[in-house]
């Protein structure tokens, strides 16, 4: 299919001759009103009602037992892995096909990633590939799951729900149970995506969601840690707010905490965005169905949600026939002001992770030569 034809189709959808970004936020509701309210009240920072409101919204919407709002998705992932007990010298399973933040947080805890291939069904962590790696290289000992070659403890499994498409969670959870691994979900991209009847981020011990400006809803910068129990939720709140013991005037901190708390200013934006999330999701599903129909039967394959899931279709993606046709598509669309992007450079090709342990990554490699993300902003008319 010719790039010009694709650009015209996208221009017709967005009804513009101007530059079309990959993913722009939409502010169609009470965003200005709530943000102005924090300024009028002077409560723009660590105190104010919107943080509590936003956390309650997140719990009600996702069904998580506890939600703790933090400054960004990376901080949410960092907190989640820290809470999972990942320590210096540990290993953590994740994907080579992910955004770098997933691996940076592993690194900054002094741990190391083991890269596992993604599945054809979900483009997320492949249960079969994970199981194969464990059978070959891991054993269970009295200190838990251990890597047979390095002797390091393998602590956690962190699937990332790529572009919003939920990973094969039942299979992954069975493996975690068998191998005494803790499940931490990188649900940064997948707010609103549902696996069977559960929201992504609520099936592991912890889940992390991002509200960066390019995600499905935004708080400017922001994230949330979803917790599976009240007890862990309490501790996440405590360590993300400097571990201060409540007191009328004393400063007493009972463990090394983080200052990861989301400011009230950002939470206000988030509360307004949550009021329109259903409209955003509906708009994105409509857009995905239009793309699906448009590319059907062509030499470009549109990436559909897995059959067991309802995806938020955060970023729409297509798979080209070859590296050459991918490069042609990238060059021609970007040259004509329609933004498209290749998938992230695979993590084991980045200098800091080039020596990381890994399984067979052939599908990740195959995809990385062919995958292109196409414009995915929701289309919501201003009220
Ligand atoms: C966006 C994203 C993050 C990080 O979120 P920030 O809010 O930008 O820190 C982490 N992991 C994945 C997969 C992401 O897409």
TrEMBL record:
GO terms for molecular function: pyridoxal phosphate binding; transaminase activity. Pfam families: DegT_DnrJ_EryC1 (PF01041). GO terms for biological process: polysaccharide biosynthetic process. Signal peptide: none annotated. The modification N6-(pyridoxal phosphate)lysine is found at residue 215. The active site is at residue 215. The keyword Transferase applies. The keyword Secreted does not apply. Keywords: Aminotransferase, Pyridoxal phosphate, Transferase. Belongs to the DegT/DnrJ/EryC1 family. This is LegC family aminotransferase. It comes from Shewanella holmiensis.
């Amino acid at each position: 299919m010719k790039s010009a034809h694709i650009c015209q189709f996208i221009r017709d959808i967005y009804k513009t001759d101007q530059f079309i970004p990959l993913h722009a936020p939409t502010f169609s509701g009470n965003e200005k009103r709530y943000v102005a309210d924090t300024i009028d009240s002077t409560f723009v920072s660590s105190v104010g009602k919107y943080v509590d409101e936003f956390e309650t919204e997140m719990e009600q919407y996702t069904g998580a037992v506890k939600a703790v709002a933090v400054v960004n998705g990376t901080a949410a992932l960092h907190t989640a892995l820290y809470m999972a007990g990942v320590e210096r010298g540990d290993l953590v399973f994740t994907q080579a096909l992910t955004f770098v933040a997933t691996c940076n947080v592993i690194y900054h805890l002094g741990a190391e990633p083991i890269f596992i291939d993604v599945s054809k069904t979900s483009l997320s962590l492949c249960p079969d590939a994970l199981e194969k790696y464990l059978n070959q290289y891991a054993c269970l000992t009295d200190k838990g799951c251990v890597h047979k070659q390095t002797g390091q403890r393998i602590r956690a499994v962190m699937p990332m729900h790529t572009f919003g498409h939920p990973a094969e969670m039942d299979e992954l959870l069975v493996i975690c149970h068998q191998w005494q691994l803790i499940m931490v979900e990188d649900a940064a991209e997948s707010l609103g995506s549902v696996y069977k009847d559960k929201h992504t981020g609520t099936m592991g011990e912890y889940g992390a969601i991002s509200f960066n400006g390019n995600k499905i809803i935004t708080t400017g910068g922001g994230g949330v840690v979803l917790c599976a129990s009240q007890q862990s939720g309490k501790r996440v709140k405590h360590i993300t707010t400097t571990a201060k013991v409540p007191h009328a005037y004393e400063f007493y901190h009972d463990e090394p905490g983080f200052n990861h708390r989301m400011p009230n200013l950002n939470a206000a934006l988030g509360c307004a965005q949550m009021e329109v999330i259903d409209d955003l999701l509906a708009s994105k599903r409509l857009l995905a169905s239009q793309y699906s129909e448009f590319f059907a039967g062509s030499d470009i394959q549109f990436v559909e949600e897995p059959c067991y899931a309802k995806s938020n279709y955060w970023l729409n993606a297509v798979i080209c026939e070859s590296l050459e046709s991918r490069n042609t598509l990238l060059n021609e669309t970007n040259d004509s002001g329609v933004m498209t992007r290749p998938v992230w450079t695979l993590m084991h090709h980045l200098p800091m992770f080039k020596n990381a342990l890994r399984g067979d990554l052939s599908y990740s490699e195959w995809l990385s030569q062919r995958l292109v993300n196409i414009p995915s902003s929701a289309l919501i008319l201003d009220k």
